[in-house]
Amino acid sequence: MINAYGLREKLDELDIASWWDEVAGGPIARHTTAVTLRRGHLHVRVDNAPLRQELGYMKDRLAELLNERSGRVVVRSVTIG
What we know:
Blueprint: H1 8-24, H2 26-30, E1 32-38, E2 41-46, H3 49-57, H4 59-70, E3 77-80
Parallel strand pairs: 2-3
Antiparallel strand pairs: 1-2
């Protein structure tokens, strides 16, 4: 029923956003200003340029951790901005 009404993506986005603090860690989460998921593409906005660079190296691992947490492939790619 959730899929029939097109709610799956919004629920996935809420789950990912709620898990972000735990998966990314407190220091990273404090500098994160937005986490959005659209069609399997995770957009993470941070307020710190060096952190943005560092997260760029961790994109695949972050997607892997979030997908493990969800029990299925929800995040196909990650953009850090």
